[in-house]
Amino acid sequence: MNQKQSISDNVWSDVFASEPADPDLDAVDHTQRRSTRLVNEDYNVEDLPDYLVECGCGSCHDRYDPLTDVTRSSGEVLLVQDVCPSPRAMTIERGSQAYITYQRNAFNRNDISSRLRTTKDRYRRLLRADIQLRDEMADPTLVLISLRLSPIDQSNGQQRWVEPVTLDNRLSSGWTNCKWTLDNRLASYEYVWITTPTRHVGTPHRHAVIYIQSEVSIDDIRSAVHSYVTNTQGAEFGDHSVEVSQSDAGIIDRDPTLADQSTTDHPTEDGAFALADPSTMIVYVAKQLPHWVIKNVYSSDSGVHNDDALVDGAAVSVASNNDWFGCSNNFPI
Questions:
Q1: How do residues 97-107 score in pLDDT, each as one tens digit?
Q2: Are 184 and 168 in a shared domain?
């Protein structure tokens, strides 16, 4: 019998918990962290959104700065790439400011795309897809896999914050190894994943919810997670424990716990699916879609502010060439 919990009470719902691979929070120098560039110096700035590129020569007029008053109010960017001999990516701090400025402006307009509107729609469709797929598969087992990596490189006794898009590239590449192992150990499965920033330092990490109708063992999941760790720079086994009855990098739920849909911000839809409840796993993942932060910054009770690490992480998501959402071909979204 499926157990139903309110979303606020379920064991996976604390999206504000620190991540095992992040540094000791008491020792984090956020000024240093946020002064890191979004991308490394080899990255082609033409691949970045225009509002995340700034003058690198020091001589361009202020009107080409995406954060000047004129561009703030209009939401339009004069391309610094057109005039600057050495345009560069913004730091995390300035990129975060630009991200929240332009995305909030987009949400207030109907003529341009808004990542928050897309997120609200994706949330609804994710919950609906979970309900539909569990119904079609007739009581599947659900698995949650969480993949992390350290945002700091250490060499010769020295530490440095890694450019966050570089971290995302490492994470994306590592997921390929994890999925290859899943393909070889599981008969068939469907999945959906998101990349999202950690709450306190904005490190990209990935959650995948896997739907399996055949038998699955903790060894299968441990093998997949370990494949990621073995092949990913900055990932450590100590940050990816996969043990029976332990909620960490791999969780198996053979009788999926359900969340009370009435506690969610956005019901799946009117009609038949509104009468069912989504799994707590999919709600946990859907609540961490990175662009929720646009809504949370302007909510008085969210505890999220303009200079929050979650805003930093959302800015990284638009700076990266990698998708921050993906699913199997037959996942019904």
A1: 999 988 887 77
A2: yes
What pLDDT is stored for residue 266 in this prediction? 42
Q: Which run of H or of E encompasses 158? A: strand 158-161
Which ranges in the chain belong to alpha helices (H)?
Answer: 30-34, 69-74, 92-107, 115-137, 164-185, 218-230, 280-286, 292-297, 309-319
Q: Residue 71 — pLDDT band, cuts 50, 70, 90? A: low
Q: Is residue 332 one of the residues assigned to a domain?
A: no
Claim to verify: residue 100 and residue 147 sit in the same structural domain: no
Query: Residue 158: which residues within 8 A CB-CB, separation 6 or more?
Result: none
Pairwise CA distance, residues 222 & 199, whole Å: 25
| Structural domain range at position 96 | 33-107
**Beta carbons within 8 Å of 306's beta carbon, 6+ residues apart:** 96, 97, 100, 297
